[in-house]
Write a structure and sequence with these properties.
The structure holds three protein chains of three kinds.
Chain A lengths: L6 E2 L10 H12 L11 H20 L7 E4 L2 H20 L2 E5 L4 H12 L3 E5 L9 H7 L4 E5 L13 H10 L3 E5 L18 E5 L10 E5 L27 H36 L5 E3 L10 E6 L4 H7 L3 E2 L15 H5 L4 H5 L1 E5 L6 H21 L1 H7 L13
Chain B lengths: L3 E2 L10 H11 L11 H21 L6 E4 L2 H14 L5 E5 L4 H9 L6 E5 L9 H7 L4 E5 L13 H10 L3 E5 L11 H4 L3 E5 L10 E5 L25 H38 L3 E3 L10 E5 L5 H10 L2 E2 L15 H5 L4 H4 L3 E4 L6 H25 L1
Parallel strand pairs in B: 1-11, 3-4, 3-5, 5-6, 6-7
Antiparallel strand pairs in B: 2-8, 7-8, 9-10, 10-12
Chain C lengths: L4 H8 L14 E8 L4 E9 L5 E9 L2 H14 L4 H5 L3 H8 L6 H28 L1
Antiparallel strand pairs in C: 1-2, 2-3
Classes of the chains: A alpha/beta, B alpha/beta, C alpha+beta.
């Protein structure tokens, strides 16, 4: 066992803060303090100017108007605000039915469930086995009283990219408010809100080399989308979201999104090369299954199941690399990933999945080390596995009567 | 000359030791606390240490502390979350609450809650007789701030919770302005929920907390990944939470020194203000914060005076920062029965350990000149 | 998940991994758990003519605690009679390995595996006595 820090391959859980972002952020916490809503003294003015510059940077990455960007404490709050805010605002005029997808982040799923308790009805669409939504099934789920649809741009566990344009057009045609959780999409896919038929979109800083604790919600102005505020107070953010803003974090998010805009094209190519190297290396191991579509997928993600080894022991075996089994946000529970289950993966394959997420600071040496490590550890665990033994003996495991316990 | 900062009730500069505690979590220590690998575990440990530090500061167990992104969020969480599990009845808030208590309370009217305002007296303290009258009606929740941000008056929470107990009402207190300035003991106050904020005590923006009595059943405001035992979803702002914990340790250690230092400066200021014939608000309150002075000069607009002082490099506030977008007179002063014209003149000085007697002296000199100049202008206009 | 040093030791250096001839008359095999539950344990014991367990082997598909629980019991089983083996309680396994509450089921599974292996062996011996 080595004492050095594990190789970080968990960029979808959170990214390190880019040193350039930290450099820009730290002066705002040491030198320029002040409440941006406080107009009466220069500390406040400096803060407000920095906040507005950052708002412009966030808007530029997604080709939106800065006035369409509302700061929040993160994507979870953005998702809660967008879904509860729009559903409650439009329920009286449009209806009380919501469409979402069973592979959404918990922040979307649990928010929709809460609305169900308050009298809304919801449809949770299952994606196809490749993780993508069948547009015909989406259309079929629409009802006359459908008020809102929420579909994530890029899935956090399997990295698949939904056809947001097509889904958005269907929503437009049916007069449905369309929310998109883009926490995993910024800096990875091109987002052009001038052309995308999306009404509300959630962003997070800490998935794109910014700090934790800051995010944003895009709220379309033309045609104007209204949301009911979920946090009341001093009326910051044009009344949509109250609470004193963390200037240094906002500045950092702006810088992180600026870097993403300028560097994403080149960065994605480099990361795709690394991911493909990892994929090919791991596919040399027998009985591996890639989860989620490989074509409609961000280059950063590889989610792969190793048959006949158990997930937790696998994580223990690979502790020299920092990876995730399922989403970071649900890994406290011992349940197999609900996302992989929704794809129709067996519990065993869901249990034995690893999400490798590659990022800005991953090197080719990291990838090569990971491939070697997995080859050796999977071999060892399979030596230990009665299932592997049975498989090698030609026994069809699906026909075995397992003793329940 | 640098601007002298006299607006510490609005936000405080980050304490150097707090920054030191935070820096690793703003750079190298980047794990998501939910992750099980070493990056995640380090972040988790840091959060749990901070939770203990915050808990110690108000005399509770760590498990009673739920971290939020701000005091505003904690107040919204308390009001919405506690009422969410109760049958609608009466909800009482004092007339001097911050909008982030009053507005979520008013929003509950659509769900059947009767929201009523508890009056305050001329010193800015809750009128206990009025509260007693209001409590004749079934009441689910009472929210009264521990210390007012504008006048600095400290409210008689022990008495309020004793009264509430007889009527089986929950009590929430917004203790954002009290923390670090007066002794805050959750159990002694007898409250069920208490809001705290990091950036008012030398910690960073981006962290707050709701401290809860374990018997309180509360609904989360933010749903999702189930962080904070399901009470506050969303990836934790590790650096800010670490900073909040560090700030609580310092606040606790320096409380006595803080009270001595700021009250001495405040008294020096108020002697000068009396000589300049200022009207002081809340200065005769039974119990007040040591660092806050709220005053006005007749016929001088607060905004005008603040701007003039700003040019002379003194940062003070007119009313509270959160409502300074508007030119409405302070709702706190109106609730105290202060006339609108005088209330419009209100200016707040709020001090901290960094302020000095020399600054107060210089401020009083400048203030005397500005008041004289502005009064002369008013006289010409009249 | 924080594992105890003992769990880590068994996980890193599992004892008695392997298989015995499941058709041999002096070998009892217990297979418990299900892949869908995340754990499958195969435990085998081999007795000598005096009825003492002289060898034990395991293979486990499961988390570190499940691997450690089965590795530990293979050590404990050697030298015991079948009746003594059947008396091994999950609580003793859990205590020895300092398993956290969420991992107690791993020790239960190990106890079940012992019981299943003993039962398998007894039924074989019973069957062979009847045939004799």
């Amino acid at each position: 066992m080595s004492d050095r820090e594990p190789i970080y391959l968990d960029y979808s859980a959170t990214t390190p803060v880019d040193p350039r972002v930290a450099e820009k952020m730290i002066p705002y916490i040491t030198e320029h303090y002040g409440n941006p809503a406080s107009r009466s003294h220069p500390y406040g003015w400096t803060a407000e100017k920095a906040v507005e510059n950052a708002r412009e940077e966030v808007a530029r990455l997604v080709n939106a108007d800065p006035r369409e960007i509302v700061w929040t404490s993160g994507a979870t709050e953005s998702n809660n605000l967008a879904i509860k805010g729009a559903a409650n605002f439009y329920a009286a005029t449009k209806g009380k039915h919501i469409i979402t997808v069973s592979t959404e982040h918990k922040a979307v799923i649990d928010t929709v469930r809460e609305l169900e308790r308050q009298g809304f009805e919801a449809t949770y669409l299952d994606p196809e086995p490749n993780g993508l939504i069948d547009l015909e099934k989406f259309k079929a789920a629409i009802r006359p009283d459908t008020v809102l649809a929420s579909v994530m741009f890029v899935n956090n566990e399997i990295g698949v990219i939904q056809d947001i344009t097509a889904i958005g057009n269907i929503c437009r045609a049916n007069n449905i408010i369309f929310h998109v959780d883009a926490a995993q999409a910024t800096g990875k896919v091109v987002i052009d809100l001038e052309t995308l038929p999306v009404d509300l979109m959630s962003f997070s800083a800490h998935k794109t080399y910014g700090p934790k604790g800051i995010g944003a919600l895009y709220v379309r102005r033309k045609p104007r989308i209204r949301i009911e505020a979920q946090m009341h107070g001093g009326g910051h953010e044009r009344g949509m979201r109250s609470g004193t803003l963390a200037t240094h974090q906002i500045v950092a998010m702006g810088e992180a999104f600026r870097i993403a805009r300028e560097e994403m094209a080149a960065e994605n190519e480099r990361i795709r090369m690394l991911r493909d190297r990892l994929l090919h290396g791991l596919q040399e191991i027998e009985e591996t299954y890639v989860n989620g579509d490989l074509d409609h997928r961000v280059p950063h993600n590889l989610n792969i199941s190793f048959n006949f080894v158990e997930g937790e022991s696998l994580i223990m075996a690979v502790k020299d690399i920092a990876v995730s089994s399922g989403s970071a946000c649900t890994s406290a529970s011992l349940e197999p990933s609900y996302v992989l289950r929704a794809l129709g993966r067996s519990d065993e394959l869901a249990h034995s999945s690893i999400r490798f997420s590659i990022g800005r600071f991953t090197t080719q040496a990291d990838v090569d080390y990971t491939i070697d490590l997995l080859k050796s550890k999977i071999g060892k665990l399979r030596e230990l596995s009665p299932l592997w033994e049975m498989f090698k003996d030609g026994i069809d495991l699906s026909k075995v009567q397992w003793a329940a316990h | 000359m640098n601007t002298v900062y006299f607006d510490h009730n609005s936000t405080t500069a980050l304490h150097p030791q707090v920054l030191e505690a935070m820096l690793p979590f703003m750079t190298a220590q980047h794990g998501n606390p939910t992750s099980r690998h070493v990056f995640g575990r380090n972040a988790r440990e840091a959060i749990e240490l901070a939770r203990t530090q915050v808990a110690n500061c108000v005399g509770v167990q760590a498990s009673q502390v739920v971290f939020t992104a701000s005091g505003t969020e904690a107040n919204n969480f308390a009001i919405r979350g506690i009422t969410g599990n109760l049958t609608p009845s009466q909800l009482l808030v004092s007339s001097i609450e911050h909008p982030c208590v009053t507005r979520p309370a008013l929003a509950l009217q659509t769900s059947g809650w009767q929201v009523k305002t508890i009056k305050v007296d001329q010193h800015g303290q809750v009128d206990l007789e009025h509260l007693s009258q209001l409590l004749q009606q079934p009441t689910g929740l009472i929210s009264v701030m521990l210390a007012n941000n504008e006048t600095g008056s400290v409210q008689p929470l022990e008495t309020i919770t004793a009264m509430a107990k007889q009527h089986k009402a929950y009590v929430h207190t917004d203790a954002v302005q009290a923390l670090g300035k007066v002794d805050v003991d959750f159990n002694a106050l007898g409250v069920h929920a208490m809001t705290l904020s990091s950036h008012k005590i030398g910690g960073p923006l981006g962290a707050g907390a709701l401290v809860l009595d374990k018997r309180v059943d509360i609904q989360p405001l933010l749903l999702g990944g189930g962080q904070e035992k399901g009470l506050r979803s969303g990836t934790e702002n590790v650096a800010a939470i670490v900073g909040f914990g560090a700030a609580c340790v310092i606040a606790q250690q320096q409380l006595v020194a803080y009270q001595g230092h700021t009250s001495q400066l405040r008294n020096q200021l108020e002697v000068g203000l009396h000589q300049l014939k200022a009207t002081l608000f809340g200065a005769n309150s039974h119990h007040r914060l040591p660092n806050t002075s709220f005053f006005a000069f007749t016929h001088i607009e607060g905004e005008t005076l603040v701007t003039a002082l700003d040019k002379a490099r003194f940062a003070v506030a007119s009313g509270s920062a959160c409502s300074s977008d508007s030119t409405e007179p302070s709702h706190v002063l109106l609730a105290m029965g202060i006339e609108e014209d005088l209330a419009r003149g209100a200016v707040r000085v709020s001090l901290n350990m960094q302020n000095t007697a020399q600054q107060i002296e210089a401020f009083l000199t400048t203030l005397a000149q500005e008041v004289k100049r502005l009064k002369a202008m008013t006289a010409i206009a009249a | 998940m924080a594992y105890s040093d003992k769990v880590l030791d068994h996980y890193e250096n599992p004892r008695n991994v392997g298989s015995l001839d499941k058709n041999a008359s002096n070998v009892g095999t217990g297979m418990v758990g299900a892949p869908a539950c995340g754990d499958v344990m195969k435990l085998q014991i081999q007795v000598n003519e005096a009825g003492i367990i002289e060898d034990a082997k395991f293979k486990t598909y499961g988390c570190g605690s499940a691997i450690a629980s089965s590795s530990l019991v293979t050590e404990w089983l050697k030298g015991k009679t079948l009746d003594q083996a059947a008396e091994i309680k999950n609580s003793a396994i859990a205590e020895e390995l300092a398993l956290p509450p969420v991992k107690i089921h791993c020790s239960v599974l190990a106890e079940d595996a012992i019981k299943a292996a003993v039962a398998d062996l007894k039924s074989k011996q019973h069957g062979s006595k009847e045939a004799a």
